[in-house]
Amino acid sequence: MRYIKSPLNYVGGKYKLLDQIIPLFPKKINSFVDLFAGGGDVFINATAEKFIVNDIIHPLINIFQDLSLSNTENVFSDIEALIDKYSLSKVNQSGYYELRNDYNQEPTTIKLLSLIAFGFNHQIRYNSDHKFNNPFGKNRSSFNEKTKQNLQRFIEALKDKTIDFQTQDFRNFNYKILNPKDFVYCDPPYLITSGTYNDGRRGFTGWSLNEELELYKILDDINSQGVKFILSNVLEAKGKRNDTLIEWSAKYDIIPLKMSYSNSNYQRKKNDMIKEVIIKNF
Asked: What is the pLDDT of residue 90?
């Protein structure tokens, strides 16, 4: 199957793991809950009657929501108009930073998509004031044909789904609405790895042992409701072990995955093994 790639190169994105993750989902799902949607690679490729797409990083949800209501040709023409206005290219650093400043003064989805196209590794990064601060992607980033194709397929897939977009802290989500025909996918920040999304310095809630334990409690509760879930996480990484996760997950089904992220913002040595897993209750 040719999976749809999100236009957002989000750290920890699951695109390269989809062929291992998607087949593990229940065959028939009423409501699919993507609790930590991130760049959207998972929910956009899943099949369900309806979706609840949630992430506390509200600019991500704003992009999904805007694109679901947009016309693809208008999106392309609006991005290309900004490229002309700011003379964006692989070498025009000043134009990129002028657009970044304008976006931070008056954010729009089109401006953000344009910044992502020409930013370093096409990534999304914010500072503690919720200001976009990804640097320029000199000599590498552009709004090319492959980017356009990915964006077009993503928009078309959004329009084909019935989606309720939310920006809840995972602790505030209403799990009582779920029943055994529903399914929850969780790809939270990983406790033993570091990333710009979980350090607590980006103006959004960080991820600590407290959040980790609260998520375990929620998953145990929905398991008691008969609701199916899958949790993506890592048991070991960079010489660290998540002993809390290892102990908690022993009562569920643990499936190892084979992958090393190429879009991570930190480097790994050849023998630095990562034990990434799927934890499922069905």
From this structure: 96
